[in-house]
TrEMBL record:
GO terms for biological process: recombinational repair. GO terms for molecular function: 3'-5' DNA helicase activity; ATP binding; DNA binding; hydrolase activity. This is DNA helicase UvrD. Residues 47-170 form the UvrD-like helicase C-terminal domain. Keywords: ATP-binding, Helicase, Hydrolase, Nucleotide-binding. The lineage of its organism: Bacteria, Bacillati, Cyanobacteriota, Cyanophyceae, Gomontiellales. It comes from Chamaesiphon polymorphus CCALA 037. GO terms for cellular component: cytosol.
Amino acid sequence: PHYQLINYLADRLNYQSSELATADKLADRIAMQTYGRGSIYTTIEVLQEIVTTEGFENIDDGSESRYTASGQVTIITMHKAKGLDWDYVFIPFLSDKIPRQLWTPQGAKFLGDFTLAEVARAKIRAHLHHQSLPTPRDAWELANYLKQGEDLRLLYVAITRAKKLLWLASEQQAPFLWNRFNWQQGDRLQDSKPSPLFSALCKKFPQLVRQ
């Protein structure tokens, strides 16, 4: 999705903490300016405007110790937590959207129950690896598989940040999309189910399950 483009690129390029902070700031700026009219085209327009009209400097994070100092609560994204650790880590809102299934907007279903961008990306990947081109349905399933793998790798980074205690939580209600949720505009929470991660962990570590 267009609204995850900046963070996705930053993660793929293995940005350091200061660069991730800059990417987070840029992603927030784009999300605000494209709210209600989000698409890859509006995202590119906003990026072009920023490049041509503003100087965009790196955020000076200083030492990473500012995030791990004792006596404080640090709220941080999974991307930015890479390379850091804490005694106690809390990860809330682990809904059944984690790992995510790719979602097809209603307006993009004219070709079928998949998005053209993901199918095209899968076909290009197959071509570059000298593989036979998949059907649109197979390409969509492959894109889903790769997306879930990406989410699980990121989640692994998050849960391995804890040294003493890891607290995972799922809520009964949550926003449909976090990056578009605005409680001031009356956006409502929706019923939410727990991530399949919980059942997988219970099966893997039954000795830790309390009734």
